[in-house]
Every structure is written in structure tokens, then in C-alpha cells.
Write a structure and sequence with these properties.
Blueprint lengths: L3 E7 L5 H10 L4 E5 L12 H6 L1 H19 L1 H4 L10 H25 L2 E10 L4 E6 L4 E11 L3 E3 L12 E2 L1 H5 L7 E5 L3 H12 L3 E5 L11 H13 L3 E3 L3 E7 L4 E7 L2 E7 L1 E4 L3 E3 L32 E3 L10 H15 L13 E3 L4 E6 L2 H7 L3 E7 L4 H5 L6 E7 L5 E8 L2 H13 L4 H5 L10 H9 L11
Parallel strand pairs: 1-2, 1-5, 2-3, 5-16, 7-14, 8-9, 8-14, 9-10
Antiparallel strand pairs: 3-4, 4-5, 6-15, 11-12, 12-13, 17-18, 18-21, 19-20, 20-21
Helix pairs in contact: 1-9, 3-5, 3-7
The structure holds flavin-adenine dinucleotide (FAD) and nicotinamide-adenine-dinucleotide (NAD).
Nicotinamide-adenine-dinucleotide binds next to helix 7 and strand 17.
Length: about 475
């Protein structure tokens, strides 16, 4: 095989592998270099998302939610089960099977799109050359017309609580526990803290979440955040806001976490701690001498709206560049870049990237929050529909939460849709499409929603924005 390619993608996560597949679909000669290492030293494509993020976390969220429902809800349905017990080892085995099927699936997709899969390390050199170090240590210099950097991110450490893989864990460690800690500390009430905190809480751990900020979920609509906090507290998640961790003492039986809040200094004893205070771009060893690619002050690869680095033929996508650290955002960037390289049209509409938190109830949104709309000075109308009034949600025993639609008061433009409730992550797709098509609240109002479905909540919330809801009193 010659060592010259149309496109070389460095990184095989959810930003890199779609870029490689689309480049292959576009008839280009493409290689994807990926250096992910599993704990047993084996290699797998899929990056953080498939190996240690989105997929394993959702597998455990599903298992733990089923256990919770079997214990707490089955009796209400008239289903009597005795001896519901958990088998964490089996849960983890199922999770690993799902991860394996997903990562092996990428190899099959690569084959179909004629992408050359290269396991190992890639480093961009000057002149669009890439130094490729295979897993056996062999080094080759490859050449490409275009290079796409998709090296992802890694967990941010806390200086006072360095990861030790034993008691002080990152999110990957928290996904791999094979016994339930009696007391679990979580630093950071962000997406990871809430999702993984929920998993271990449902499996029986006492979970204390220490969050430095006074505001809960500041990036979310605050009406949603308030409801979420109420629901999570009801589930027994002990969320302490404004809690600044100052240090930790690790002993043979656990960790004593010292923190301060508005009321003074405190200490909390836990068996294990998950530090989930955000992620940072991972670019270690990525850029060789003279690559010309620059990083910003936070370590992200500098790119423009079209993910171009400013160096001829070199792009960067996914978590290693600015913007939300989300798999679907990275995927769209990868696809956009592969299409632009092939001379096709490509664009990412950053205004319609949805956010989902896979807790129970789920939280999902797209567009602006009420706070953002108000800060922009644009007058708006707001419709809220509670799942308590949804026939389908009642039938599912999942009535917590609501759908909220925000539209402009002047021309009815849809500005934001927020859902906290059952299957919110699925429901939000309708709102993403609506925003993508610059829909109005009236467009949502005139769209027929099947009955009884959860999606009727978005329909009714859109109607409520004009005080025309049918299934809930308008106020
Ligand atoms: P990554 O997935 O990090 O992949 C980068 C790949 O490049 C890795 O395999 C890495 O080993 C490799 N690499 C790096 N440097 C080199 C090099 N020099 N040479 C060769 N290979 C290299 N997002 C969602 O949208 N939904 C979710 O539900 C969700 N859940 C998550 C749960 C957890 C616990 C975590 C940690 C994250 C979650 N995320 C979720 C975030 C999501 O995983 C990331 O946004 C996504 O993986 C970023 O994709 P990426 O391709 O940019 O980077
Ligand atoms: P995050 O940014 O969502 O949350 C981090 C939280 O930690 C914030 O609330 C922050 O205020 C808090 N924090 C920061 N420093 C702290 C300190 N010293 N003490 C206490 N609290 C502190 O980050 P994350 O939860 O680590 O997730 C990382 C990334 O992964 C996110 O960008 C997210 O988009 C992505 N992710 C997405 C999903 C999803 O889409 N469902 C799931 C998991 C992760």
C-alpha cells in the first residue's frame, strides 16, 4: 500500500470516525489513526464515547433504572415480584458486551466505506505529513492532501484530589466499579456527576454531590433546573451547592473530603470519590514541529466556523475544538469537514445542537433558555405543559416534569424548547427539527401529534404559549 492519502483522520472517536466514513463515501482515499487503549491494553475504535462515555453510561443507567422500577413501581402496576436483587457483575458484563458490539461495529463500517483503519498514534508534521506509530512500535511517515485532527478530550483533574484509580476515580473508573460503594462522593453536579451519581444511587449507594457553584445546572433553563433539583433530592441524591472542596485525606477505609460553603467548613466521609469537574482538550503528542496548528489559551485547537485550523488542508473537530463537548456535535463537524474536503456543501448549525442529560426524569433542550431570551431583550411568550396532564405519562407512571416552549412575542419564532420528563432525549428531536426549519410556535401547534404520546406535551406547550392549550388549564 502506498503511504499517500487524500485524507488522514487522527482520532477514531465520534468526531473522527464519521469524518473518515464520510470521506470514504465521498470516494476519497482515507485512513483513520486511533490510539485508544483499553484497561487490558487492547485497542478499540470509538474513542471516549463508545469505550468509556456515552454508551457504557447509558447501559448502566438503563440497568439501574430497571432495578429501581422493579423495586419501586412494579407493585403499583399489579406485578408482584419477590426477591428482586441485583447482580452488578452481570450488569457490567452486559455493559461490556454493548461496548464491544459498538466498537466492533466501527471496523465493519470502515470496511464498507473503504477506510483504512490504523491502530496506533498519529502526529501531524509539517507539510501535511503524519507520523504514524503502530501498536507494535513501527513508525511510518504518511502523506495526505487533507488531515483532520479529532483527538478528543480527557477528564480534568482536581489538584487537591489527584486520580488514583482506587478511591479517587474519573468517570471511566466510576463506570467500571463491580461492587456498590456504601458512600460515594461526587465532585461536580454537571452532566457526568448527575448521570453516574444516579446510577450508583439507584444501586443503593449513599451519594453526596459537592458542587462549587451556588446555581444548579446553570447552562439549563432555570425552571427546568429547579424541577430537576427537586426530583434528584427526592431520589436521595444529597446535592450540596456552593461547596468548595479544599482537600481530602485518603485512609484505608475511605476518603474524608474537606469542603467549605456559605455556612463554614465541613467534612464528609465517603468510600470512593468521582471527580467530574469537566473535561479538557487532549492534544498531547498530536502536533509535531512545524505543523503550524495553534492552540488557544485553554488548549483547544484553534478553528473557524468550518473547523479549519488556518493551515492549508488541516481541520480539527470534536472535543479538541471550541463548543459543546458532545458526541453529536463532533459527528456533525466530522461529516461537515469530510464534505467540504470533497468540494460538497457542509455546515453545522451550532444553534440547534441539542443537550440531553440521561437521568430520570431525563432533561433535554435546544435553543435558548428563558434566561437567555430575557437577557437578549427580546419579548417572548412561554407555554408549559406538565406531564401530570399527559395520559401517556400517567399510563407509564412517569408524570414528573414538563415541556416548555419559548417563542418570540413579535413574530412567533420558536426560540427554545425544554423538556424534563420521560424520554425527553427522544422528544427533543422534534424541537431540533423545528428550530432547524425556523419554525414558529404556530407550526408546532398545527402539527398533528398522535394520541396518546409523550410528544403531545410539546404540542400542548406550544399551544399554551398562546393560552390555547386543550388538555391543561391556561393561566
Ligand atoms: P474522543 O471520543 O475522546 O475520541 C478521540 C480519540 O482519539 C480517542 O480514541 C483517542 O485515544 C484518540 N487519539 C487522541 N490523540 C491521538 C493521537 N495523537 N493519535 C491517535 N489517536 C489519538 N456525549 C454525548 O453527546 N452524549 C452522551 O450521552 C455522553 N455521555 C458521556 C458520558 C461520559 C461518562 C463521558 C466521559 C462523556 C460523555 N459524552 C457524551 C461526551 C462524549 O463522549 C464526547 O463529546 C465525545 O466522545 C467526543 O468525541 P471526539 O471524537 O471528539 O473525542
Ligand atoms: P460539566 O461541565 O458538565 O460539569 C462539571 C461541574 O463541576 C460543573 O457544574 C462545575 O461547576 C463543577 N465544578 C467545577 N470545578 C469544581 C470544583 N472544584 N468543585 C466542585 N465542583 C466543581 O462536566 P462533566 O460533568 O465532567 O462532563 C464533561 C463533559 O462531558 C461535558 O462537557 C458534557 O457535555 C460531556 N458529557 C455529556 C453527557 C451527555 O450529553 N448526556 C454526559 C456526560 C458527559
Amino acid at each position: 500500500m502506498s503511504d499517500t492519502y487524500d485524507v488522514i483522520v487522527i482520532g477514531g472517536g465520534p468526531a473522527g470516525y464519521p469524518a473518515a466514513i464520510r470521506a470514504g463515501q465521498n470516494g476519497l482515499r482515507v485512513a483513520c489513526i486511533d490510539g485508544w487503549k483499553n484497561r487490558d491494553g487492547s485497542h478499540a475504535f470509538g474513542g471516549t464515547c463508545l469505550n468509556a462515555g456515552c454508551i457504557p453510561s447509558k447501559a448502566l443507567l438503563e440497568s439501574s433504572e430497571l432495578l429501581h422500577r422493579a423495586r419501586e413501581e412494579f407493585a403499583t402496576h399489579g406485578i408482584r415480584v419477590t426477591d428482586v436483587s441485583m447482580d452488578v457483575v452481570q450488569m457490567q458484563k452486559r455493559k461490556s458486551g454493548i461496548v464491544k458490539a459498538s466498537t466492533q461495529g466501527i471496523q465493519a463500517l470502515f470496511k464498507a466505506a473503504k477506510v483504512e483503519a490504523l491502530a496506533g498514534h498519529g502526529r501531524l508534521l509539517a507539510g501535511k505529513r503524519v507520523e504514524y506509530t503502530a501498536l507494535d512500535g513501527t513508525v511510518r511517515t504518511l502523506e495526505a492532501q487533507h488531515v483532520v485532527l479529532a483527538s478528543g478530550s480527557s477528564p480534568m483533574p482536581l489538584r487537591s484530589l489527584p486520580f488514583d484509580g482506587e478511591r479517587i476515580l474519573d468517570s471511566w473508573g466510576a463506570l467500571d466499579l463491580d461492587t456498590v460503594p456504601r458512600r460515594l462522593g461526587v465532585i461536580g453536579a454537571g452532566v457526568i456527576g448527575l448521570e453516574l451519581g444516579s446510577v450508583w444511587r439507584r444501586l443503593g449507594a449513599e451519594v453526596v454531590v459537592l458542587e462549587a457553584l451556588e446555581t444548579f445546572l446553570p447552562m439549563a433553563d432555570q425552571q427546568v433546573a429547579k424541577e430537576a433539583l427537586k426530583q434528584f433530592k427526592k431520589q436521595g441524591l444529597d446535592i450540596r451547592l456552593g461547596a468548595k472542596v479544599s482537600g481530602a485525606t485518603t485512609g484505608p477505609t475511605g476518603v474524608a473530603l474537606a469542603y467549605a460553603d456559605g455556612s463554614g467548613e465541613h467534612s464528609v466521609e465517603v468510600d470512593k470519590v468521582v471527580v467530574a469537574i469537566g473535561r479538557r482538550p487532549f492534544t498531547e503528542g498530536l502536533l509535531g514541529e512545524g505543523s503550524g496548528v495553534t492552540l488557544d489559551e485553554r488548549g483547544f485547537v484553534k478553528v473557524d466556523e468550518q473547523c479549519w485550523t488556518g493551515v492549508d488542508g488541516v481541520y480539527a473537530v470534536g472535543d479538541c475544538v471550541r463548543g459543546a463537548m458532545l458526541a453529536h456535535k463532533g459527528k456533525e463537524e466530522g461529516v461537515m469537514v469530510a464534505d467540504l474536503i470533497a468540494g460538497r456543501y457542509g455546515e453545522v448549525n451550532y444553534k440547534t445542537v441539542p443537550s440531553v442529560i440521561y437521568t430520570a426524569p431525563e432533561i433535554a433542550w435546544v435553543g435558548q433558555t428563558e434566561e437567555q431570551v430575557k437577557a437578549s431583550g427580546r419579548a417572548c411568550k412561554i407555554g408549559v405543559f406538565p406531564f401530570l396532564a399527559s395520559g401517556r405519562a400517567r399510563a407509564m407512571e412517569s408524570t414528573a416534569g414538563f415541556a416548555k416552549v419559548i417563542a418570540a412575542a413579535d413574530d412567533d419564532e420558536l426560540l427554545g424548547v425544554h423538556v424534563i420528563g420521560p424520554m425527553a432525549g427522544e422528544l427533543i428531536a422534534e424541537a431540533v427539527l423545528a428550530l432547524e426549519y425556523s419554525a414558529s410556535a404556530e407550526d408546532l401547534q398545527r402539527t398533528i401529534h398522535a394520541h396518546p404520546t409523550l410528544s403531545e406535551a410539546i404540542h400542548e406547550a406550544a399551544l399554551a404559549a398562546d393560552r390555547r392549550a386543550i388538555d391543561f388549564p391556561n393561566r
